[in-house]
């Protein structure tokens, strides 16, 4: 079974579930979770076309790939959703990466007026992964929705 998303080359949900299982049951590490959702992708696809929407998705994945180390798991979990699992990390590093991600999006939008990325992002952190990985993904998801609602 393939572990990669066909459009971006990111890991897919199947691979993410495997990683979650390992972190939740076998390997105990401090983890950071970044949950991302592109804003208004359906409207973008309906008005600008799916090709434009795909370009947004790929551009955003490229920002994620440039921001997070190769040891992080970057997975496309839905049409416009990405989850990043940062392994063996401190809370301060998660906060710094979160800030760097937001800064990178601003730079992209400043330099490429044609392809404006609008995204809602939330994060969470846990000192341990055993038994709580899914819980902290849910916390990051809730924090992402708070970010979305604040716009």
From TrEMBL:
SUPFAM superfamilies: Nucleotide cyclase
GO molecular function: diguanylate cyclase activity
Family annotation (PROSITE patterns): GGDEF
Gene Ontology biological-process annotations: cell adhesion involved in single-species biofilm formation; negative regulation of bacterial-type flagellum-dependent cell motility
GO cellular component terms given for this protein: plasma membrane
Ranges in coiled-coil conformation: none
CDD domains per the UniProt record, alphabetical: GGDEF
GGDEF domain span: 29-151
UniProt xrefs under InterPro entries: Diguanylate_Cyclase, GGDEF_dom, Nucleotide_cyclase, Rev_trsase/Diguanyl_cyclase
Annotated Pfam families: GGDEF (PF00990)
Full protein name: GGDEF domain-containing protein
């Amino acid at each position: 079974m393939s572990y990669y998303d066909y459009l971006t080359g990111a890991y897919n949900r199947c691979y993410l579930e495997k990683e979650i299982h390992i972190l939740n049951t076998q390997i105990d590490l401090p983890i950071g979770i970044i949950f991302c959702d592109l804003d208004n992708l359906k409207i973008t696809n309906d008005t600008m076309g799916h090709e434009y929407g795909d370009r947004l998705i790929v551009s955003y994945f490229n920002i994620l790939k440039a921001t997070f180390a190769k040891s992080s798991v970057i997975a496309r979990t839905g049409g416009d959703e990405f989850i990043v699992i940062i392994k063996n990390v401190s809370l301060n590093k998660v906060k710094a990466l979160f800030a760097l991600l937001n800064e990178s999006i601003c730079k992209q939008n400043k330099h490429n007026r044609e392809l404006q990325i609008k995204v809602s992002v939330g994060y969470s952190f846990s000192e341990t992964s055993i038994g709580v990985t899914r819980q902290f993904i849910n916390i990051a998801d809730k924090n992402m929705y708070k970010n979305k609602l604040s716009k």
